[in-house]
Description:
This protein is of the alpha/beta class.
Amino acid sequence: xxxxxxxxxxxxxxxxxxxxxxxxxxxxxxxxxxxxxxxxxxxxxxxxxxxxxxxxxxxxxxxxxxxxxxxxxxxxxxxxxxxxxxxxxxxxxxxxxxxxxxxxxxxxxxxxxxxxxxxxxxxxxxxxxxxxxxxxxxxxxxxxxxxxxxxxxxxxxxxxxxxxxxxxxxxxxxxxxxxxxxxxxxxxxxxxxxxxxxxxxxxxxxxxxxxxxxxxxxxxxxxxxxxxxxxxxxxxxxxxxxx
Length: 243
């Protein structure tokens, strides 16, 4: 469960979030959409306290994270996986080593146990044959899949996606969508997806949230979202030729 209570955030004298409230329940797949600069990624960063609100509180599984100690925050973050926009892979590590890294850093598992889990994740994202390649040898879509495997390697309860289909062609984007849905179902995840890709949001989310000028102007199921009477939502939908 993720709850934002009256969250305000200002960056360089500019209001980014202006009193937003929402609740994301366990198992939800929530897409956050909107134009550039409206606070989508800022909202995501608050969920793992990479940013702190100027006002308001944020709860993860019923616990306020605003003032957690570093030790408490590390424990809370261990239940949250993040897929960054550019996959954020370490260029001098192989695919296998990138995925294994969180297990080596945060657990006391043997290399045999690590190998078993990494091989399983490689199979999930269909990259077994690429395990010894380096990020520079992979396509954008393959890098995203490696990032997704790494984000789920510690069996998180929540996974956050920052533009998972950005820069990908439509066919590859739909493959990423299908993988997100598969992992969400098999791992019983709660997923939050920041995206400009409305086709993706409509396909995989249980609800879509739209931000505009620091406010939530729509938060509804996909079918209701595209029927919204709000002029900003209508313009956003029509710009992507959804209807």
